[in-house]
Design a protein that fits this description.
The structure holds three protein chains of three kinds.
Chain A lengths: L1 H19 L2 H16 L10 H36 L2 H6 L5 H41 L1 H4 L7 H28 L3 H24 L6 H13 L9 H5 L12 H24 L5
Chain B lengths: L6 H36 L6 H7 L2 H28 L3 H14 L4 H23 L7 H25 L5 H12 L4 H13 L5 H13 L3 H14 L8 H15 L57
Helix pairs in contact in B: 3-4, 4-5, 5-6, 5-7, 6-7, 7-8, 8-9, 9-10, 10-11
Chain C lengths: L5 E12 L4 E13 L4 E5 L6 H8 L7 E6 L2 E2 L9 E4 L11 H11 L4 H15 L14 H13 L5 E5 L7 H16 L3 E5 L3 H7 L2 E6 L2 E7 H5 L14 H13 L14 H9 L8
Parallel strand pairs in C: 3-8, 3-9, 6-7, 7-8
Antiparallel strand pairs in C: 1-2, 1-4, 4-5, 9-10
Helix pairs in contact in C: 2-3, 3-4
Classes of the chains: A mainly alpha, B mainly alpha, C alpha/beta.
The structure holds adenosine-5'-triphosphate (ATP) and magnesium ion (MG).
Chain lengths: 279, 310, 286
């Protein structure tokens, strides 16, 4: 057991280092940081607290967008470089199970995503805090003496976002485990992501569909793909005072649990599909 | 058939196992997901697909639905602001409409948009038509009217996504007041803003002042009296200003002393307009000097009366 | 009796090519036993199935028919690889790591005791002659250096069985001579080595036994000495050989019923010439 953990961690760490030392990752990080920081300079809105929402929206959008790109491209890239460079051969020729190899790969990218979301959320938090402080001086009445942004909410949301990106990473790993080219798995994974983002439409509408065959199909589809819209709780978590309704305390945990379950499921399926692949 | 040798059987097997596993998990987590999603869903406004599809290609719609609507809307709005700086009327207006179609949630899109339409664009249009000095007054008025109406129509749509938000009627009231000079309508919407949840206190005062402008003093007085009763003792509520107005109106209407609002604790001595003609028989703590109902501070208050914003 | 280091029994490996599942038989009914502490060479033309055989032995590919065992443990089990090191052909490693970091990583994956990793890595680097380049990124290595670091990662955890797919491809003659020496040293330490190579001269020098494959089949197998010696002929080495002496020799041979079939000038090998002129002063990368 100890040995297994040790091997997975070693492979994960190596994957993480691999990613961090690649230019692609660094470029993406710099781009996202620039985007988040620049939201401050796009325009001065004389809206007081409205501007905070704009910055938050923009920052969270940047995290989601670049995080998704990172999750998909980094996973596919790190996986295929192993296959193409035959390093997977050297690792699997050692006493390493295939599932340990995949788990290590996942862990490495998951760690990468953790660093990415933490960094981005941190920068966004600093931007918001800085702006909020100066706005509070100018438009004190809109704030009623208290801060509008919940920074604990931001941290919580960052964790949820990380889990969501983790699910995306696991999906990409699953696709990569049976697909033959890097490009193919990137495209398919993005496609699956879009379905996951959209599946709520199916989920919400299947009850109103009359045709039983179609209803069954829609129902099946909504079960097949995880619902990514569940993670869209940034507004409520960041601006709890503004929202008309509040998220109940347990909901973020439920959403997080949902993400964790799907991470395990997709990594498990990746292991299953990879078990007899010829490399 | 030999299973191990048939690649298609193997692939089908893998596929079926994966689908079954996903279905099974989907079923297992569905109670959890129903509960959490039900809650998350109730917090999100419906996406207005019809409006977006008219304005955009299919590809972007997919991207939008892909959960990136916020950032796309932000980008479009930033574009709109670029055109705003260039004073390009058509593009600014089109992009503002697109922004709110993509993501109707952020209120500042609506507010900023309606302000640009009602306040900025008429100036550009007049300038395009030849400048403030050359364009005939009637044409200018027409442009102001038209754009003000556009601003109002625009912010009206915000009401669909933000029902009960005081900023919608407030914005409308301001356009009616500042641009259309329609005091009646402006008053109506200021009152509506005041009655909305979180409606600021000052909107009520503006409402009453507009009544006064329309020479409906009695109505204004009655409203102020009621307002004075309703208002909490919150510095934000600016009760002293309301009291001040009540005293003004009592004078204007020559309200008999008995019907006037009794002296209020902490009522300030308000210099300037009541000292000369005080009602007869009202005593002050200082003796026989005739003063209005209420207390006079033992020392003169140096500060100017607060809250004369309008 | 102890199980052989590798036992391959009636191994067949088919590859599917194309969507319709056309099959290509890469290995066709191969059976081999490779004994403990033996250097075994797998020879054959390109595409005859050498690498495929090795991958099946290592459990990287599934056999279509038949199977392999390593020290009696079937290759399909992960624990069969506990004591195995492998150098794939044309290896290419994590280019962002330095040579030393790379070896540490492999040592960790193989669960070498943490305390022993550092000295072992240094030792292995010395063995393959990469000490000077150890702290450079692998991405900057030349082809031959990659090959050497590949051998290093195959032996870093001190395995009992080492499988080398073309260990000397792209390595200069000095390097290949060093690798040959290394292989002999490993054998002396009691290791078993399976290698394949196209440099037959070298194979001849290090291998105890060889198998020659062609189109997936083993066509010849046996001890190198047995396979190579022509038992019905001998050769003489003479310093100067005048015409007259030749006639005398022929006459003497004729007396015994033997015949002189030819006279040639022996040539030293190009390898030897190269080594002599570049100075076999140890590996010389910098
Ligand atoms: N993954 C694969 N898919 C399809 N065919 C393959 C695959 N790997 C190898 N082959 C085929 O199997 C045959 C044997 O290949 P193998 O790599 O074992 O040859 P080799 O003896 O190592 O040759 P070389 O000396 O060139 O390295 C070749 O015809 C090759 O085309
Ligand atoms: Mg080969």
């Amino acid at each position: 057991m100890n040995g297994i953990c040790h091997r997975i961690l070693t492979i994960g760490r190596n994957t993480f280092l691999d990613a961090v030392r690649q230019k692609f990752f660094n470029a993406l990080v710099i781009l996202s940081v620039a985007l988040i920081v620049s939201s401050r300079f796009f325009r001065q809105f004389d809206f007081g607290s409205g501007e905070l929402k704009f910055i938050a929206d923009f920052g969270l959008g940047a995290i989601l967008l670049f995080g998704s790109i990172l999750a998909v491209v980094a996973t596919a890239q790190l996986f295929y470089s192993e296959i193409e460079n035959r390093t997977a051969l050297t690792i699997l020729a050692k006493p390493v199970h295939r599932w340990e190899f995949l788990a290590g790969k996942f862990l490495g990218v998951f760690l990468l995503l953790a660093v990415f979301t933490a960094l981005m959320a941190g920068i966004l938090g600093i931007m918001l805090y800085w702006r909020e402080s100066s706005l509070m001086d100018r438009y004190g009445d809109q704030f009623g003496g208290q801060r509008l942004v919940s920074y604990a909410g931001l941290a919580g949301f960052a964790v949820l976002q990380w889990l969501k990106l983790g699910v995306l990473c696991a999906i990409t790993l699953f696709v990569s485990s049976f697909s033959n080219t890097n490009l193919y798995s990137v495209v398919v994974s993005f496609f699956v992501m879009i379905i996951c983002q959209l599946q709520y439409i199916a989920r919400d509408s299947w009850e109103s569909i009359g045709n039983p065959a179609l209803k069954g199909l829609v129902w099946g589809l909504s079960l097949l793909f995880p619902n990514f819209q569940m993670f869209n709780v940034g507004d409520v978590m960041l601006f709890p005072h503004d929202a008309t309704e509040q998220l109940s305390a347990g909901t973020p945990w439920m959403i997080g649990g949902y993400g964790v379950v799907y991470i395990f499921v997709f990594v498990g399926l990746a292991v299953f599909a990879f078990r007899r692949r010829e490399i | 058939m030999d299973f191990k040798r048939n690649i298609w059987l193997q692939r089908a097997y893998t596929f079926v196992v994966c689908v079954c596993a996903l279905l099974l998990i989907g079923l297992i987590v569905s109670p959890l997901q129903r509960k959490a999603w039900g809650e998350v869903r109730s917090l999100q406004p419906e996406l207005n697909l019809k409006e977006v599809e008219g304005a955009l290609g299919q590809g972007l719609v997919i991207g939008l639905l892909g959960g990136f609507r916020t950032i796309i809307a932000d980008m479009v709005f930033i574009r709109a602001n670029v055109y705003w700086e260039k004073k390009d009327r058509e593009k600014t207006e089109a992009l503002i409409n697109l922004t709110t179609a993509i993501d109707p949630r952020p209120m500042f899109f609506w507010l900023n948009g309606s302000r640009i339409m009602a306040y900025d664009i008429p100036i550009w249009r007049i300038r395009e038509a030849g400048g403030l000095d050359d364009v005939p007054k009637s044409v200018q008025d027409e442009i102001y009217q038209e754009q003000a109406q556009r601003g109002i129509d625009f912010i009206d749509r915000a009401g669909k996504y933000h029902p009960g938000d005081y900023r919608v009627p407030l914005e409308k009231a301001q356009i009616y007041n500042n641009k259309l000079k329609d005091t009646e309508k402006a008053a109506e919407y200021f009152l509506q803003a005041y009655h909305s949840e979180d409606g600021p206190y000052y909107t009520a005062r503006i409402y009453a002042e507009l009544l006064r402008q329309m020479n409906r003093q009695q109505e204004a007085y009655d409203f102020y009296r009621q307002l004075y009763n309703e208002l909490p003792d919150d510095p934000q509520a600016n009760k002293p200003v309301v009291l001040e107005r009540i005293r003004e109106l009592e004078d204007e209407l020559n309200t008999p002393a008995m019907q006037r609002l009794p002296a209020q604790p902490g009522e300030r001595y308000l210099p300037g307009y009541m000292q000369e003609d005080l009602p007869i028989g009202v005593k002050t703590p200082f003796g026989d000097t005739q003063v209005p109902p209420g207390e006079i501070y033992p020392y003169p208050e140096p500060a100017a009366p607060a809250g004369h914003s309008h | 009796m102890e199980a052989p280091a590798i036992r391959i029994h009636s191994l067949v490996k088919d590859f599917r090519i194309g969507l319709r599942g056309w099959k290509l038989r890469a290995v066709d009914d191969v059976s081999l036993d490779i004994h403990d502490n033996e250097v075994y060479g797998l020879l054959g033309p390109n595409g005859c199935g050498k690498s495929t055989t090795m991958k099946v032995v290592l459990g990287l590919l599934e056999p279509t028919v038949g199977g392999c065992e390593i020290y009696g443990v079937p290759s399909s089990q992960v624990k069969s690889r506990l004591n195995v090191g492998f150098l794939p052909e044309a290896p290419y490693f994590y280019r962002y790591l330095t040579g030393r970091e790379l070896l540490k990583f492999y040592a960790k994956v193989c669960s070498v005791e943490p305390g022993k990793i550092k000295p072992r890595v240094t030792e292995v680097l010395e063995m393959v002659g990469l000490t000077e380049a150890a702290d450079r990124r692998v991405g900057t290595y030349s082809k031959g250096m990659l090959q050497r670091i590949g051998i290093a990662q195959a032996i870093v955890h001190d395995p009992k069985l080492i499988i080398l797919d073309e260990p000397t491809a792209g390595v200069d003659p000095i390097g290949s001579a060093a690798i040959a020496d290394l292989i002999r040293a490993l054998k002396a330490q009691g290791k078993t080595i399976l290698l394949c190579s196209h440099l037959l001269a070298q194979v001849e020098g290090v291998c105890d036994r060889v198998a020659i494959m062609d189109r997936g089949k083993v066509v010849l197998e046996g001890k190198v000495d047995d396979l190579l010696s022509k038992h019905d002929q001998q050769s003489l080495l003479v310093d100067t050989f005048p015409e007259a002496a030749r006639a005398d020799v022929e006459a003497a041979l004729a007396k015994h019923g033997a015949k002189l079939t030819g006279v040639t000038t022996p040539r030293i090998s190009l390898d030897d010439l190269f080594l002599k002129h570049t100075g076999k002063g140890g590996p010389k990368q910098s």
